[in-house]
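Here we describe the complex-level prediction in full. Unlike the single-chain runs in Section 2.1, the two entities below were treated as one system.
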Amino acid sequence: QKEVEQDPGPLSVPEGAIVSLNCTYSNSAFQYFMWYRQYSRKGPELLMYTYSSGNKEDGRFTAQVDKSSKYISLFIRDSQPSDSATYLCAMSAEDYKLSFGAGTTVTVRA
Amino acid sequence: DVKVTQSSRYLVKRTGEKVFLECVQDMDHENMFWYRQDPGLGLRLIYFSYDVKMKEKGDIPEGYSVSREKKERFSLILESASTNQTSMYLCASRSRENYGYTFGSGTRLTVV
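The structure predicted for the assembly as a whole is:
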């Protein structure tokens, strides 16, 4: 079993829809949770960062962490074609190493 | 703008060659990482470095080595390239104060 599970999709939505992405994990020591966005032929870029449980909002993006269920989510409201990318969840414990999900490919249709 | 720069975007090498992938960061970050990214497998950690001249094995170090002689530079070495090392290689760095990584644009390596 992988330490971090993420449905690879692909996910296709119309412009303006809400995109819902999620990951589950098995390591209860994970404390730091991140979402990265990766455009084609580019490196991942940090999108959202959350420590421990709770919600965090940044513009059209909301990240949620439920440590009791070992489940994290990313919501994108009012999705735009420019949101089309691969979204990677990532998490770590009190060390330096991030564990990544496999990534979900999202296409927002104009 | 802060940057992690990988020396090559695309490389084609022959089986058995020794391959060097270079990564330079300009953010004075202590920690640097090498990942490979394959479809369906996500990012897998090959090696990382806490600081200059320090290195630790990641999850898939076999067939690879690394060098960190200067703080800004972290090199990945494929001792004898094989076809199963065809992949996208990503370098990243982070400071001790911030858990977010900054990634380079990647090197797509093809071993023929």
